[in-house]
Write a structure and sequence with these properties.
The structure is a single chain. By secondary structure, this protein is α+β, with helices and mostly antiparallel strands. The chain is globular, with a radius of gyration of 21 Å. It has helices at about 5-10, 45-55, 105-115, 170, 210-215, 225-235, 260-265, 285-290, 320-340; strands spanning about 15-20, 35-40, 60, 70, 75-80, 85-90, 95-100, 140, 145, 150-160, 165-170, 190-200, 245-250, 255, 275, 280-285, 300, 300-305, 310-315, 345-349. It folds into 3 domains: about 5-80, Uridine Diphospho-n-acetylenolpyruvylglucosamine Reductase, domain 2 (2-Layer Sandwich), CATH 3.30.43; about 85-235, Uridine Diphospho-n-acetylenolpyruvylglucosamine Reductase, domain 3, CATH 3.30.465.10; about 245-349, Uridine Diphospho-n-acetylenolpyruvylglucosamine Reductase, domain 1 (Alpha-Beta Complex). Strands 6-7-12-10-11 form a 5-stranded antiparallel β-sheet. Strands 1-2-5-3 form a 4-stranded mixed β-sheet, with helices on one face. Bound molecules: flavin-adenine dinucleotide. Flavin-adenine dinucleotide binds near residues 103, 138 and 142. Flavin-adenine dinucleotide binds near residues 131, 135, 137 and 347.
Length: about 350
């Protein structure tokens, strides 16, 4: 459908924006445009919007804060950015609390608020960009903790069945940077609220890498101290998207069969790895990228971040296609060097 037609269809609905710039809504800073854009603040407006979009057969894209998306092109359809707010306690006892949070709340502000209130468990996930509603999509994780570790249930609108549903832990099928929302049910559900189960007694998770040492060097003892340590580590390693457009890790770490792993190890005895379930080994994608010659490499306005080759950076003025082509070249080189297929973590539109 031509974008002019889409504009005509929605001119009667005052909460729709047309030919809308998404530049401020994606962390690569790409000047992509949406034919139409809406930011429904509640479930009722969302449902009305979806009914309209369904009647007109518009392609849909659900957007959080755009920190895990690469726009290769403009989006010729309707971008919906859920606008549900609110942080509400739904259950509590002396040990735990279950809190329901609106999809459009900012993830890091929610983490900070939870710690302030004395609700613990999310400290290691501090400073991850994005919204609460997107957090289950790839089961965000960092420093030994994943969102699923404190997930209770979520509320969503099922576009296929045209109804609101609550999905529990098992229904979401969380895995490493994955869930049904990124896999088999991609595009089917719009998450409106997420509920978390948090501890009232701090149980700090210091098991990942050298966190314990850094924490004790900083004389840390509280969840807030842990949050500050994580923030300092992240700020020292990762580029700030406000300065250098990026979407964090561009690729997932690689799960490889033991036979492939053994072949790699013959040539590279130093290969880092983590045993995974079954017959697979996890190899850090950053290592594969570095050994394929891409650490700190720059082509035009696109490059890998010198301190973390897993992060692809828009140094200014790059197009979505250029960033995509750059990532494709990395994929091909890793494949030909190691016979390992890297998988993009970033959602390409
Ligand atoms: C500097 C930097 C560091 C990062 N570090 C980490 C990290 O440590 N760990 C980690 O896991 N990730 C990390 N990321 C990735 C990113 O922060 C997360 O994936 C985050 O959850 C994306 O949130 P968002 O709101 O920006 O989602 P978006 O990029 O807007 O969307 C991501 C995906 O979710 C879908 N989606 C968004 N909202 C909804 C909804 N309400 N219902 C259904 N689907 C929806 C979108 O369609 C899209 O497919 C990092 C990113 C950056 C820029």
């Amino acid at each position: 459908m031509a974008s002019e037609q889409i504009i005509a269809i929605f001119t009667t609905m005052n909460h729709i924006h047309h030919n809308y710039s998404l530049k401020a809504l994606n962390s690569f800073g790409l000047d992509a445009r949406a034919a139409s854009y809406a930011n429904p603040a509640d479930k009722e407006s969302l449902i009305t919007l979806l009914e309209e979009a369904h009647r007109e057969q518009l392609p849909l894209l659900i957007l959080g804060e755009g920190s895990n998306i690469l726009f290769k092109n403009n989006f010729q359809g309707l971008v919906i950015q859920p606008g549900m707010k609110g942080i509400d306690v739904v259950k509590e006892n002396n040990e735990e609390v279950v809190v329901k949070v609106g999809a459009s709340e900012n993830w890091d502000r929610w983490v900070s608020y939870a710690i302030e209130k004395g609700w613990y468990g999310l400290e290691n996930l501090s400073l991850i960009p994005g919204s609460v509603g997107s957090a289950p999509v790839q089961n965000i994780g960092a420093y030994g903790v994943e969102m699923k570790d404190h997930f209770e249930w979520l509320e969503t609108y099922d576009i296929q069945m045209k109804q609101q549903v609550r999905l529990d832990f098992n229904a979401c099928r969380f895995g490493y940077r994955s869930s049904i929302f990124k896999g088999e049910a991609k595009g089917r559900y719009i998450i409106t609220h997420v509920a978390f189960r948090l501890d009232k007694k701090a149980r700090l998770n210091l098991d990942y890498g050298n966190i314990k040492d850094v924490f004790s060097l900083a004389n840390g003892s509280t969840p807030l101290d842990l949050r500050n340590v994580i923030i300092n580590i992240r700020e020292s390693k990762l580029p700030d998207p406000a300065q250098f457009g990026n979407a964090g890790s561009f690729f997932k770490n690689s799960m490889v069969d033991r036979t492939v792993f053994n072949c790699i190890r013959v040539e590279y005895p130093e290969v880092p790895f983590y045993p995974n379930d079954g017959n697979q080994m996890k190899i850090p994608a950053a290592w594969l990228i570095e050994k394929s010659g891409w650490k700190g490499k720059r082509v035009g306005n696109v490059g890998t971040w010198p301190a973390q080759p897993l992060v692809i950076v828009n140094y200014g003025g790059a197009s979505g296609q250029e960033i995509y082509d750059f990532s494709e070249n990395i994929l091909q080189d890793v494949e030909s060097t190691f016979s390992v297929s890297l998988e993009r973590e970033v959602n390409v539109i």
